[in-house]
Each structure stands twice: as structure tokens, then as C-alpha cells.
Amino acid sequence: MISLAPLVEVRDVHKHFPIGSGLFGRGRARVHAVEGVSLAICAGETLGLVGESGCGKSTLGRLMLRLLEPTSGDVLFDGRSLLTLAPRELRAMRRQMQIIFQDPYGSLNPRMRVASIVGEGLDIHRLGTRRERRARVAELLELVGLPPDAAGRYPHEFSGGQRQRIGIARALAVGPRFIVADEAVSALDVSIQAQILNLLQDLQRRLGLTLLFIAHDLRVVEHMSDRVAIMYLGRIVECGPRAEIYRNPRHPYTRTLLSAVPVPDPRRRKLRMALGGDVPSPVNPPPGCALGMPWRCAGVRLRLSRPGAAAMRSPVTSFRRRACRRPTARRCDGWQR
Amino acid sequence: MIAARPAAAPPLLEVRDLHTVFALEEGAVRAVDGVSFALERGRVLGLVGESGCGKTMTALSLMRLVPPPGRIVDGQVRLEGRDLLRLPEREMRAVRGAGLGMIFQEPMTSLNPVFTVGSQIAEAIRLHRRVSRRAAWARAVELLDEVGIPEPQRRAREYPHRLSGGMRQRVMIAIAISCEPQVLIADEPTTALDVTIQAEILDLLRTLRERHGMAVVLITHDLGVVAEQADEVAIMYAGRIVEHASVLDVFEHPLHPYTQALLRSMPSLGSERRRRLEAIPGQVPDLLHLLSGCHFRDRCPKAIGACAEQDPPLEEKERQHAAACIRV
Ligand SMILES: Nc1ncnc2c1ncn2[C@@H]1O[C@H](COP(=O)(O)OP(=O)(O)OP(=O)(O)O)[C@@H](O)[C@H]1O
Ligand SMILES: Nc1ncnc2c1ncn2[C@@H]1O[C@H](COP(=O)(O)OP(=O)(O)O)[C@@H](O)[C@H]1O
Ligand code: SF4
Ligand SMILES: [Mg+2]
Ligand SMILES: [Mg+2]
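Above: the input record for the complex with adenosine-5'-triphosphate. Below: its predicted structure, written as C-alpha cells.
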């Protein structure tokens, strides 16, 4: 069930990373990894976040969990700002938010047994007795489809898909309400990817999870999401219900992305609308439209607007935002139906 | 394989019963286990399969660049009838470049970080042609232009780390086509790239193919890429080709249970929302511990007792449509 109340919300968040420090003094150059993003994810909803490499997806996901401090803006969980919480409150809040990483190899400690990896969160949060924890780990392994004897083995004894299951079990251990899945299936083979996508969907339904599903594969995102946000150079350029984004994309960048996706139907080979040139760098980006020069989007001039946080208070699922104004088109700042 | 052809001219490229083995302490890994196919001029063969199934080793075997302890132990690789596996290494060097060009899977690692991209292309040219340094450089700049790199004069003098992933891949393509190969082998040329850049690189490959009339072996695990680019498709599983047919037949009328399952397990744009994907149970096979009989049988929905008894050979089941399954 998707409710209309946002569980997670970011309001006009910015994240700038200083770069080129050292030689040039206190690094004048900054990466504008996230540039004024306002988004809400409703309880029980899956929000898909897509965009090209380096556009800021992971950074935004980490901001939502407060694994990174925003340069400015606010991050709310269940209506409370995470930025003003006392450390102890934040730690308690952490139980409710977890992350699953892309790399099933690098993200698991090779020297720990699966039982310790999965149970680590229980230990940290001191949940249950030792015996209860062991029972909980067994239950989690079963939940994600791993054999019971997996508990005593080490990560390297498992395949990529199985390691991703371990990562999912670890994330679920402390009973979170919100999970950021950051490219959770990107490193997997097609047949295994399908297993993990199905698992995530089942778990979400059974446990009522809220999901930020980050991926660069538009096909996978369509399959998983209720709503989709398209990110480009640190900004959300379009956001709306899945079917609308995919059937009726409004932003030229969304259209370009969609038209670049290969269609698995040899009768429908198509001429694509390609962006000219490489993606501009988010280091000191050009002002105005993040798409930059008009030649990058088929002759349409773009400017970006930044809808204010006020718009965020409306029930999110029924709205759709475009961060793009075409001079020739109807004006549209912020949310519209 | 496909093509029961008149005896006249041999196909441009013909691979027969190729076997490449890694002899490890734990046992023999048959990375390429009896692969056969033929490819005609100007055609694109999509070679598809999941990681570890032997796509790269097939490509490297054709180039005779299998890394040790891997070894080609049997088979033939005929380019215009001439068996490359029997050539002295010196002659093979000439074939690499002008006969077979290859785009390697990792563009980062296959470009040398300490040389400019222009000099790397020029060097590739001089390896095969007796031309002056200056002529080779001029040709390198031309090639950068041809693969769509803006300001090729300037870019030629840059080092690989200054280029984006898409540009590096264009440089790799420039090197691969620098000697106008008859067959271009592209090993996952777009896997590491964003979808928009992927589209551009695939368009570039198509343009080059049309301009130069090259045949292409396009290796990928993305069935969407295959559907858009290939004329025919070979599906690999555990070191073998299990199905080989025209691209239309493979997508509209797949015969092998693995191909069928692969097509169903893949989300595609516009598919029904929340349709459960039909995942293939089990794991990608480990070539060290293969099952007797059909290697796919532990994951196959159609498996029967007899599947354990014999290796199903790749046979023509319908016209120009081969599959390796006893139940087809
Ligand atoms: N700790 C950091 N220090 C400096 N720059 C950073 C840091 N983390 C991220 N960046 C930069 O911020 C931008 C956004 O990075 P981010 O990892 O969020 O992208 P992404 O959309 O997740 O990309 P990918 O699809 O490749 O995972 C990039 O330009 C990246 O180089
Ligand atoms: N250096 C090596 N030593 C041992 N086995 C290897 C080596 N390189 C590749 N292999 C084996 O060969 C098989 C095929 O590998 P590869 O052709 O790279 O697969 P693909 O390109 O289809 O992902 C794999 O199962 C792998 O384990
Ligand atoms: S031979 Fe048997 S196990 Fe193998 S693909 Fe055919 S039906 Fe399945
Ligand atoms: Mg990322
Ligand atoms: Mg490979």
C-alpha cells in the first residue's frame, strides 16, 4: 500500500564536493554533485532514480540517509529533520534506513562469516539476546532465499547473486522502513538480475518497504518503480508516475534517454535521437539549463527552474514536475498534473 | 553451422570445433568447448551469453591472444579459407589488424596511460604498414575524426585519462579499424558506457561497417543491443553455442530452453507493470564443475532424465536454425 504521506523528503538539498585541493590552495573548484533537489518518497512507494554516470544519484541516496552532510537544504524522515537530531536519536533513526550497494564483492567483509555480516546491525543496535539474534539471522537467510548452512560460510564462497542476497539480508536485519538500493542489480547477469528484482519486489510487498531504487538501466527502473525521477548533472529534470514518464516523457533529456534504450525487437530497429557530445562535467557547471547548449537537446532551448519547497507539501504521487521551461511551451514551474 | 552453402568460395570467417582450455590445478576449464560458426562479408554476428560463458575467450582464440595458462587445443579458424591456427606467429601478427581487428572489453586497461592517444593509434598503424611516422600520425588524426572525436588534431596529443569513457572507446575503435580489418571483433564495446553513449557508439559501428564492408562479431550480454545490431545470433552457455539463427528467429521463435528463458527474464521498456520476471533458477555455471550431459539441465524447465545422458550436439533443427537440445 502506498500512502500519500511522505516518509522521506529532501528539500532543496545541495551537495558540493571541493576538489583540486592542495596545489591550488583551498580548492576553488567544486563538484556540484547535487544541485537543489526537492523530492519526497511516500511510505510503501518505490521511487526510481535514473541518470547517467556521475549525475549524482548515489550522492542523493546518501544524503537521504544522512550518510553525507548536505551543503545546504534539509532532509526529513517521517516528518523530522535528520539534520537537527541528537547523535543518539540519529542512531536510533538509522535502524529505519538501510542501503544495499552495487558491488556484491566489495561491500561484504571477506573475513566475516555470513551470520556475522547479516547480524552486525542487530549487534550494533543491541537487538535481542544472542539466541534471538541467531534465530533472526536464520529467518533472514530464508527470507532472501539462501540455504541455512550459508550462515557459517564466507562471502567468497558465494556467487554474485547470492552475495547480493546476503547484502539484502543485512539491510533487512534491523527492520528498516526505508531502503536505498544503489545499483543493486547492475553487476549481475540477466538471469540472476531477474531473481534479485523479484526478491526485492516480494520483500517490499511483504514488509511494506519504501524504496529508493537507483539504477542507470531504464528498463529495470521501469519494471521496479511507482514513480521515476530523472537526474541530470545534479538536478532532477523530470519526475512523475512511471507510466507517464515512460509513455509521455516531457523533458527532452528524458526523451533522449528513452530513445537510446535498445529495444529487444529486431523488427523495430530505430533511428535514435542522440545527444551530441559528451555529458558536461558537474565541476563548475554552466549556468542555466543543465543540458547546457541548445545543441544538446535537438534544437530546443532550455532553462531550468527550481521549484520551491512549498510545492512539496502536495500529495506527491498525483503530481508531476518538470524542471524545464521551453519558451515556446506553456510555462511550468514546479508541480503540475 | 548455419548455411549449408555451395562449395564455391569459402566463407569470410569460419570457425570449426574450436576448443580452448585452461589447465588449472583444480581441473580443466573448457572456456571454449567446441564452438563452430561461419560469418559472411558485411554481416553482424551477435555472440550472447552470461559472464564466464566463454565469449571473450572465443574472441581471443580467434585472435590467438589467449592468455596463459589458457591454450587453444583443437579446431580451426579459417579466414578466407586459410587456417589461422596453423600460421607462424609472424604471419599471424599481420593478420591481427588487417584480417581481424579487435575492440577489447576493457578500454581503460587496453590503452596505455603514458602515451598520447594519437601515438598509440600511429603505432598500431606502423605495426602493420610501412609508412613514415608522419604519415601514420596524419592517418591517426584522420581516424579520430572518422570515429567522431571533435578537434582530432588536439585530441590526438592528449593522454587517455583526459578522455571520457565514450571517447576512450572511440579511440579503441579507431585502433581496431586502423588497418581496415575484414572482420571486426567487438567485445562488449558498450557495456561500461551510459545508454546515450552506447547508442552513439553502436551507431558509429554501424556506419563504419557500412562504409568499409567489414563483418562484425559483436559480443554482448544485452539482448537489446543484439536485436538492434545483429543479423544473426549465437547464444553461448558454458563454453558452447547452444542456439544459432537469424536475429528474427532467435527473438520470435527461440528453440533452446535457455534462449527462451533468457528472453523472458529480461525487463523491457513498456512491459506490463509489476509483471513478475521469469527468473532462471540457480546460478551461472561454474566451468570447473559442470554437469554431465546437458550443462543447462539443472536450470532447465524442460529437462528430463535423458538430458543427463548425453551432450546434446548443436544441430540444424529448422532451416538455418540450429539448437543444442534433445527436446527440440
Ligand atoms: N567524495 C567525493 N569527493 C569528490 N567528488 C565526489 C565525491 N563523491 C562524488 N563525487 C562527484 O560527484 C558527482 C556525482 O557522483 P555520484 O557518485 O553521486 O554519481 P552517480 O550518479 O551515482 O554515478 P554512477 O552512475 O557512476 O554511480 C560526480 O562528479 C562525482 O565524481
Ligand atoms: N586466466 C584464467 N584462468 C583460468 N580460467 C580462466 C581465465 N580466464 C578465463 N577463464 C575462464 O574461462 C571462462 C570464459 O571466460 P570469458 O571468455 O572471459 O567469459 P565471458 O567473456 O563470456 O564473460 C570463464 O569461466 C573463466 O573462469
Ligand atoms: S537438453 Fe534437456 S536440459 Fe538441455 S536444454 Fe534441452 S531439455 Fe533442457
Ligand atoms: Mg553511483
Ligand atoms: Mg568477457
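Notes for the reader.
Chain B touches chain A through 49 residues (CB under 8 Å).
Residues 195-212 of chain B form the longest helix (18 residues).
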